[in-house]
Amino acid sequence: MLPGSDLTRVRLRGGKVDYLNLRAATLTDVHLDDVVVGELDLGGASATRLRVDGALGRLDVTGADLRDVDLRGADLRAPTGLAGLAGAVVSPAQLLELAPALADHVGLRVLDA
Hints:
Layout: E1 6-13, E2 16-21, E3 26-33, E4 36-41, E5 46-60, E6 65-67, E7 69-75, E8 88-89, H1 92-106
Parallel strand pairs: 1-3, 2-4, 3-5, 4-5, 5-6, 5-7, 7-8
């Protein structure tokens, strides 16, 4: 639990964290490498060059400010605060997984013909 912390040039490699609270933290050059995170809370965080490689059960980016954040290695499932994903990079496959949540977020209705 590191809410409000200032982390620079940190690499966490391997292991499992059930709940990683980085709410309102400032992250610069942080890499979660092959880490299984049950829940990652980046609500209100400012992240520059954050990279997440590993399983990610729940992600909260409500009010986050992301710049050059690479989530392509993460397993993204229904993040909270979708607008906070602005500034992140995801893969085409992740975009397809996020499509229902993104549609719901903007009020888009998807119906068969």
